[in-house]
Amino acid sequence: MNEGKKFRRLALRVKIFRWIGTVMIVLVALLLVAIGSYKLTQMKAANESNAQMNYLEMVSQIMAPNIQTSELRLKDTSLLGGQAFNRRFKDIEGVHVPWSSITATYSWLYGSHISGNLNAVESNGTSGAVYDRETQQKVPVFYNPRLKKAAEKPAHDLQKIANQRNAVVEMGVTFKEPLSYAAIQQRLPKGVHPAWYWIGVEKKADPTFMDNNLFGLNVQNAAGTLNEDDYRGFHQGLVYAHKHDLGLTYDDVNIFKFAGQYAKQYPNLRTAKFAGLIVTGNSEAFKPLLKASWIANSSIGIYQIRTPIE
What we know:
Layout: H1 3-62, E1 68-75, E2 81-92, E3 95-107, E4 111-114, E5 121-123, E6 130-132, E7 138-139, H2 158-161, E8 167-180, H3 181-187, E9 193-198, E10 216-218, H4 228-243, E11 249-250, E12 253-254, H5 255-265, E13 273-282, E14 295-305
Antiparallel strand pairs: 1-2, 2-3, 3-4, 5-6, 6-7, 8-13, 8-14, 9-10, 9-13, 11-12
Helix pairs in contact: 1-4, 4-5
């Protein structure tokens, strides 16, 4: 073999090794890019999912009128994203009633979306009654006594149930004037239990037009009592809602802005004023409220006949 052939062989061998080296470098680089991209997308998806879970937790804490959470979790997760899911129910004197769920989608690629209609409801145009869209259970309605005309005709449902017997009742009660926690406790008759304390709305807002997206404080015990720790958590939720304002407005009224204003004005339970209540109890216990001069309106929610266990 002459020197020329040896040189060409050596050159070819060097070239092949260079090609192999280049391919290996490219493959390693592509692998590192793929791993890095995967980790980056998962980090972004995790941030989005955490944000939506925090948002749904905030909603369940401050914007769920007598609505409890039975399950808050992620579902249908994939490389692109998934859904945050909140399964809910109502507790009416120990009876659990299914309620509409809330789902928020999230994605590192397309962003996140949560419906502004969090407590999805639909109304009966003729009677003014409002129903949960998913379960078709009746929703107690609240009113703003400062408005001359509301979108829905104010209800006075205490008259309908005060003389009824053998039923458990959920009732939304709107006060003529905001009341303190202590004043509310003094006014309620025995057997009527607060389930949710409503903080009201901005002075020109119409709560009958707000899809049941109202701010208030759920009670965590059968007696319907609150303490400063309960209110502190609620207050923190209002501050969070104001800070993470999604621009949910009704007739140009930003409800998250109102949450921040209320939190600033009422920093603790001792100073807090409430515009209404959701109360529950046996129908017979509501009769004393017929003479309550401090009640402006009353609206029935869930009404169920008591059935004895045989």
